[in-house]
Specification:
The protein is built from 9 helices and 11 strands. By secondary structure, the chain is of the alpha+beta class. It is globular. The chain starts with a helix and ends with a helix.
Length: 224
DNA sequence: TCATTAAATTGTT
DNA sequence: AACAATTTAATGA
């Protein structure tokens, strides 16, 4: 229930701020709980806040304007999304849905702008995140449909670790095989099969209700 | 703290 | 998709 503690744990950028800035963020931010499968943000609505996943797991479905290719990205706790719509102050271009019960933080656009204006480290953090995301989408658009299910799972898992800054953090992620299936858009039993294949290749370790990534680079590059 | 039971997750057909 | 096996969490002595 301690907001400050949550932010230190689930917002890598929070540590980069000065005490004054931290104080303002804590004052302006709001947190809400969402049950599994709840719609957090809807496509088409205007963006008033930066969305942070303090706890839980969220999926972002991006519907391209030209049609049906709705590719998915998973966002684990510690991930922050939606800055694109904020910067251009336009409507959200995707739906954000809770995959399981999640604690969602909202940083108002005003505060977001304030940080942009006053904190160099914050800008640097954002730049890095945007860069990562672009690389992600390019790779996705290129390969997503052509990849075998095993590779799709590998990529989805790799992406779940991307938004986070992993140094120091654990390489273990609490996610069920069913949830991975949702993200990779394959059945749960196929997910199971894929995970076993990846475990065979020493890229990850299957745990109960979680997976531990052993070789992130290997996952990103996995093919066939 | 340990044993029993229920719920959730995984493995198999 | 349905079922069985396994693991974790919850309950109560």
């Amino acid at each position: 229930m301690n907001l400050k503690y949550s932010l230190q744990d689930a917002a890598a950028w929070f540590e980069l701020l000065t005490p004054d800035q931290k104080e303002r963020v804590q004052r302006d931010i709001s947190v809400a709980q969402y049950p599994a499968a709840a719609m957090i943000e809807r496509k088409g609505e205007k963006a008033y806040a930066w969305i942070g996943v303090l706890n839980g797991l969220v999926k972002v479905s991006v519907g391209t304007s030209d049609g049906k290719l709705a590719s998915l990205t998973g966002v684990p706790s510690g991930g922050w999304i939606g800055e694109g719509s904020l910067l251009k102050s336009e409507a959200r271009k995707y739906d954000i849905v809770a995959l399981r019960e999640s604690a969602i933080a909202r940083l108002p656009a005003k505060t977001f702008d304030f940080l942009l204006d006053s904190s160099i480290p914050f800008n640097r953090y954002l730049l890095h995140q945007l860069n990562e995301r672009v690389a992600q989408f390019i790779g996705k658009a290129e390969y997503d449909r052509l990849l075998a299910p095993d590779a799709r799972v590998a990529r989805c898992l790799a992406e779940l670790f991307n938004p986070l800054l992993y140094p120091g953090k654990s390489m273990r992620l609490d996610i069920t095989q069913e949830e991975i299936g949702y993200l990779a858009r394959i059945s749960r039993q196929r997910t199971n099969q894929a995970l076993r294949t990846l475990e065979e290749a020493n890229l990850l370790k299957i745990e109960y209700g979680a997976v531990e990534v052993l070789d992130l680079e290997g996952l990103k590059q996995y093919v066939v």
